[in-house]
Design a protein that fits this description.
This protein is mainly beta. The chain has one helix and nine strands. The radius of gyration is 18 Å and the shape is elongated. The model has no long low-confidence stretch (mean pLDDT about 80).
């Protein structure tokens, strides 16, 4: 799971707190914001600008009979959740997310998996 040691998901209105995401095989976070050079009228570089971009989280989950999280329901109900990500090195991040897309697949060896794409509406470093 890249530099992630543990991930958990929680809901603001859920009395059960958060659950550890144990069925995740792959995990990635990408930041679509890219720095761009800024030029003056003569074509000389005078610095850079850093426009914001969406952060996306991609999870690949082993599909089981009773999945830990009903991703389709979260998507259908347009519910926000908080994804807690504990990274190597001790950083802990909280991402306020919504489900953007769900893709399911299987192979000829009966390996079933689901790829879930989340859009981070906000991110906060907790430690």
């Amino acid at each position: 799971m890249s530099n992630v040691t543990k991930a958990a998901l929680g809901w603001e209105d859920d009395i059960h707190g958060s659950i550890d995401l144990e069925d995740i095989e792959d995990f990635s976070i990408s930041d679509d914001g890219s720095a761009a050079a800024v030029f003056n009228v003569t074509g000389n570089s005078i610095g850079a600008e850093f426009p914001p971009g969406a952060k996306t989280v991609s999870l690949t989950e082993r599909t089981k009979k009773s999945p830990q999280v009903n991703w389709r329901r979260l998507r259908k109900e347009e519910r926000e959740a908080t994804l807690y990500v504990d990274e190597i090195g001790g950083e802990l991040w909280a991402y306020r997310v919504v489900v953007s897309k769900i893709d399911s697949s299987s192979d000829n060896q009966s390996k079933h998996q689901r790829t879930i794409e989340l859009i981070a509406l906000e991110d906060t470093q907790l430690r």
